[in-house]
Design brief:
198 residues, alpha/beta, Pyruvate-ferredoxin Oxidoreductase, domain 3, 6-stranded mixed beta sheet, 8 helices, 6 strands
């Protein structure tokens, strides 16, 4: 099976690891070969969390610069920081709601200008799906469902070889009972948001 390489970037607390776990388990259930790796920054303090999820015939869990087929970003500046993994054929899906780092909050750093930055991103990749995922998560019932919103958008683009139903079934299995409906709604809202950007 041809390899598909996905990078997921976020900051600590945004649910990156659960999202990659859902994709990995869904792949296993479908019999799709999958390999995963994670890099944790100071995740509990809002640091970077990066996951690599590779489907198909791959022998490494590393995605080198320019190798990502898809880039899924839960925080816009982290998406920009990971653009070195993308190429002209990459699909980039990003939440546009910023979560500025501590250095910006205390005036020691500057947050990037998202409008001009993503204009450049659009010119350097095959497809850009960019929307306020936090608002959709809130509409679903909790900001904590941002990861499910982003999974829905990813599923809509068909950038990974995993069906919508397999992802939804795995979300149901991995979610506490009280949050299943919220997470499925969040997934659907992300799916719809990406569909509107076609």
């Amino acid at each position: 099976m041809e390899a598909t390489k996905l990078i997921i970037v976020a900051v600590g607390g945004q649910g990156n690891l659960l999202a990659s776990k859902v994709l990995g388990e869904a792949a296993i259930k479908l019999g799709v070969p999958v390999r995963m790796s994670e890099i944790h920054g100071m995740a509990q303090r809002g640091g970077v969390v990066e996951s690599a999820v590779l489907f198909g015939d791959v022998h490494s869990t590393i995605i080198s610069n320019g190798e990502a087929d898809a880039l899924l970003g839960f925080e816009p500046s982290e998406t920009l920081r990971a653009m070195n993994k993308a190429n002209r054929n990459t699909t980039v899906i990003t939440n546009l709601h910023p979560l500025p780092p501590f250095t910006v909050a205390i005036g020691k750093g500057k947050y990037p200008d998202l409008d001009s930055s993503f204009k450049l991103v659009k010119e350097k990749c095959r497809r850009l799906i960019a929307f306020d995922g936090v608002k959709l998560a809130q509409d679903a019932g909790t900001v904590m469902s941002l990861n499910m919103v982003m999974l829905g958008a990813l599923a809509q683009t068909k950038s990974v070889p995993i069906s919508v139903e397999a992802i939804k079934d795995t979300i149901r299995f991995n979610t506490k009972k009280n949050f299943v409906d919220i997470n499925i709604k969040a997934f659907d809202l992300g799916y719809e948001a990406a569909a509107k950007m076609n």
